[in-house]
Q: What sequence folds into this?
């Protein structure tokens, strides 16, 4: 009797090398375990993601409500002129002269970084970034087949920039840019004039772009002043700023950022990519336009709130044995060292196997913020995006988790 | 006497090859000339861009109005579960079984295409596309350093797909996918089952992705039926669909699209990129969720309106001497041949130097929709996104322009 076989091949078309090499986001990769913890009835303190709990200004929503638009149309590819005018005014109030055609509104700072990386790197080109850095810089560069070249900074030194020599060693014919985040995500550092002057000199000397991600600009504590690279004279061809309303106005879901440069050729390049994706979101632009007209006092209150949280967090962390929290004076993150071998394992264990008074904590494991293998293994990024009493409760929970974890793994 | 020189170099850091090679959008590159025409007091009929004048459903705006959110937060990177549920239901009503985890919500179909291209192409890899095609396919592939390989279709043949042999000739070890737009932008063609079956067989035979941009799915006229590649059995590893609310609900400014596939590995890859850019716009998702719950009757009316415009456009074009308008039975575009040597020059001239009864017309020059140099030079894409009487007036204006242009250039 003849026998018929059904042979099933699971042949599928090939995926790209770049996506195979793209690491999962350290900020989001534990989400399924947090979801499971919530399903088990636990309260999860989310300190993994820079999603502030600060209310979005009512003016933001009001600008979107009852718009009486008939058609929700594409906007200008560079963003509505009226929004760019308000962004220009905002920079004017800060003392930086930025014209509307030196601003291209993007779908979040993420898209701005994507457009800039695509505009300045050929495959295998290099961008120098102090590490630890915002993990997605890696994703954006990999997506362009470019490489992030890290210059390591250290927790003992509060993640201050190393000597210019350390940067100079990394510069070669493939180097296209130096990228900083100031105030720093994930480090909480605010760079001083001497550090920034050094980078300016290097960029000028080697014809590099100096890209500053300044989305946390207002979040500078202890009366320290944020210095934008936009203030440098004679650097119009080199300086590029990435900005966003996400943190500034607690409007992450608006997906409105921008790329800023006085380099006309670069902006023409970014504009070509902006045209290809048609336009940034219309509703978000409407809200952002209103938010950029808020008085200075809006920031005074928000900054005061964050400074209080920073104090509460630092105080609580300093009391936990074996934990190292550096000085933090900007943004709303701390890169913290824990008394564990693998923060990755520990963070997952907190979600999987631990609870303290019906709660647990979600943190972002540190290694994902480094490009150098083996760095940051015992560090975590903590986003202080909860109210002071919740932060204190979360830190108590973390302390209990560390005790339990050490008891479990003697 | 010593003499001091100020030598000014305008040295700037280098831009990437990819952006240097990126063509300006044929749909948007004439915008400055149209702006100038408006400033001179002219009425400009905008037929260059697929920005419908159809009112966005009131339900879309109502879902965004008075949301009572306190914080405009990031959504899930794959889009809100509640929106994906509605999209899944919508596909279910069309007869396609698509689960919520087979849908990733993106910032417009543009981002979906970007993510898919990034996921499947290494630099120099190839994607086969029938030309003329939506011009931004070129931009998205160039941005990934991949190549669009055209298979030319012809106006005399209403831009029908050529024989499978013409496709097979282009397939080599670098080929990763076949990409179609159905119904077609810019051609207005709706592919029939035989054409689609052929592409399915090719994709299966050569382990290629079969990517279908189906954002105009509902816009099929003359009782012709749109066939989604999602209906193919045994093609789960190959089939990818790109979709959007922009045209379906006249909500271009929402910037909400999606990537759909049953290929889990591909969706994991797309998800990594979705996580890196954090989330799609929150307001747009809220509106889209409401729109996907509209009854079928919404489309009946809209399709009737477009079919009427299509008839008006074709009738008017057929009356202009030397103009060739193919049969069009889907989307809301026509790729039309004009009695001019350079549609590029003619389109710009209409904006710069021409008026008819205080008005002029903006069209998209055809060459930008082809990858083969020298093709489409005397063609234009016309988007029939205005009411019938305005379309007729615009076509009168175009006829007058052609007469005047030919008189000027004998």
A:
């Amino acid at each position: 009797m003849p026998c018929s076989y059904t042979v099933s091949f699971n042949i599928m078309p090939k995926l790209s090398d770049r996506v195979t090499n793209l690491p999962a986001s350290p900020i989001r990769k534990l989400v399924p375990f947090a979801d499971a913890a919530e399903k088990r009835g636990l309260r999860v303190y989310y300190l993994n993601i820079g999603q502030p709990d600060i209310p979005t200004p009512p003016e933001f929503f009001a600008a979107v409500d009852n718009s009486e638009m008939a058609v929700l149309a594409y906007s200008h590819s560079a963003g509505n002129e009226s929004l760019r005018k308000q962004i220009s005014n905002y920079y004017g109030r800060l003392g930086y002269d930025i014209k509307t055609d030196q601003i291209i509104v993007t779908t979040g700072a993420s898209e701005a970084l994507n457009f800039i990386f695509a505009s300045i790197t050929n495959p295998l080109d290099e961008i120098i970034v102090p590490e630890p850095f915002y993990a997605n810089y890696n994703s954006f560069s990999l997506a362009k087949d470019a490489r992030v070249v890290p210059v390591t900074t250290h927790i003992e030194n509060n993640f201050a920039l190393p000597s210019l020599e350390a940067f100079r060693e990394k510069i070669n014919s493939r180097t296209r840019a130096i990228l900083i985040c100031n105030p720093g995500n994930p480090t909480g550092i605010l760079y001083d004039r001497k550090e920034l002057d050094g980078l300016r000199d290097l960029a000028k000397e080697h014809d590099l772009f100096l890209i500053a991600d300044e989305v946390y600009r207002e979040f500078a504590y202890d009366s320290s002043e944020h210095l934008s690279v936009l203030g440098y004279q004679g650097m119009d061809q080199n300086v590029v700023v990435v900005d966003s309303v996400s943190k500034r106005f607690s409007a992450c879901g608006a997906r409105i950022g921008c790329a800023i440069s006085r380099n006309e050729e670069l902006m023409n390049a970014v504009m070509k990519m902006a045209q290809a994706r048609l336009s940034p979101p219309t509703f978000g632009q409407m809200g952002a336009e209103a938010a950029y007209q808020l008085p200075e006092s809006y920031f005074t209150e928000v900054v005061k709130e964050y400074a209080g949280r920073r104090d509460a967090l630092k105080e609580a962390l300093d009391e936990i044995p074996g934990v190292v929290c550096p000085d933090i004076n900007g943004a709303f993150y701390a890169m913290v060292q824990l008394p564990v071998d693998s923060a990755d394992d520990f963070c997952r264990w907190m979600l999987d196997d631990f609870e303290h008074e019906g709660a647990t904590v979600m943190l972002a494991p540190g290694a994902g913020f480094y490009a150098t293998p083996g760095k940051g293994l015992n560090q975590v990024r903590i986003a202080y995006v909860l109210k002071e009493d919740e932060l204190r409760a979360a830190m108590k929970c973390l302390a209990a988790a560390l005790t339990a974890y050490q008891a479990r793994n003697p």
Summary: Chain B has two domains: 23-50+297-408, 74-291. The two ends of chain B are 65 Å apart (CA to CA).
